[in-house]
Amino acid sequence: xxxxxxxxxxxxxxxxxxxxxxxxxxxxxxxxxxxxxxxxxxxxxxxxxxxxxxxxxxxxxxxxxxxxxxxxxxxxxxxxxxxxxxxxxxxxxxxxxxxxxxxxxxxxxxxxxxxxxxxxxxxxxxxxxxxxxxxxxxxxx
Length: 141
Description:
mainly alpha
């Protein structure tokens, strides 16, 4: 259950994206249809929107609200899915990095043990260091 968590998080992100966009579109369509079926808002007896069922007083407000729900609901679902997918990729990549570090540290330990004192440092490394210092400092004669 806890293995391959990054892939499971990425799958959950795809499910959230698809479900969020579908629910946003369904809710937007429901708001638009509900607004067109219901009667107009009655502000006064002399409102032309009430007489002719036109304008923002009847369906325009619901159409705008429905479209905004579709657009912003889909965008918010995409944003959450993007963040969740990035977290899943980060978890998967950190697992790969950890495995690489564990494998390289065991190879290094098998090849060469670390130097613990000055006596353990090879003579060749000391000679290279002194020759590098000699090249940097010209002879002043």
